[in-house]
Amino acid sequence: MAISSHSSLTENNVAELICLQTHRLNDTGWRMKQKALLAENGALVLSNFLNKQALSSLQKEAQAGLADAYFNPQTHTVYLSKPDPDYDESHIRNRQLLSSKGCICDDQIADSSVLKQIYHHPLFQSALCDILGEEKLYPYADSLSSVNIHYARKGEELNWHYDNSSFAVTLMISPATKGGHFEYVQNVRKADDGDMGFEATRQIIDGETEIQRLSLGAGDLCLFRGRNALHRVSPVEDNSTRQLAVLAYNSEPGISLSSTAQQTFYGRIGSVAPA
Ligand SMILES: [Fe+2]
Fold this sequence. Notes:
The chain has 275 residues and is of the alpha+beta class. It has one domain (2-266): Jelly Rolls, CATH 2.60.120.620. The chain has seven helices and 13 strands. The chain has helices at residues 2-5, 28-41, 52-65, 114-119, 122-132, 198-205, 259-266, and strands at 43-46, 70-71, 74-76, 97-99, 102-104, 147-152, 158-161, 168-174, 182-185, 212-214, 221-224, 230-233, 242-247. The strands form three sheets. Strands 1-11-8-13-6-5-2 form a seven-stranded antiparallel β-sheet. Strands 7-12-9-10 form a four-stranded antiparallel β-sheet, with helices on one face. Helix 2 packs across helix 5. The radius of gyration is 18 Å and the shape is globular. The relative contact order is 0.21. Mean pLDDT is 94; it is low at 1-11.
């Protein structure tokens, strides 16, 4: 299992990677404060989470990975599920939106990468657990889905959607210099009550509602609850490339991303490590 294979990381000096003076991962009081902020806002940004040198190393790595990124522009509904024949094609339930960003996968990122050192680090995981209210966090069982770097070039975007998972952890490597904004509206649907928030969702997609923006600088860590918050990354508007790491965890061990989702997002299907 991936966590135990990285257990030597407990020896690592995580202070070389993360700015622990500001982000006091070891401090229970600090963790509880971040937990309260996340609960209140549905989003938490830990600015300048990475130390300068770690950020610089990650930026070089991400830039080199761009040549190997998989781009597969595709349409989807905001609910990321197949159309429902009970509604017509133009209904917000079935409306098709285009997403065009690309990515590289976990097996394309070196074990020595800053991203993987942080992702597997027991202190980082334990702080995340407290902030997110999770008992334990597990990597994906498949070889592709745990750590990804997402790329959006001029005109590319991640269109409006709700997440299936209850939380997302991302690390901004390099924001676009124009466009590429993370935009969202909280509490639009109540997925667990079966309330899909159709009208409120339509108003957002059609630009009739005020939306919020998160300002994310290079080296910022972001925790976001996207199950009931509609969100997107707007199109990049210049020749910069937005580069963002996604650190994906599960609450249970042994979970793989579905083969369909792997094929769609990565263009291939990864291997599954024995339990
Ligand atoms: Fe999302």
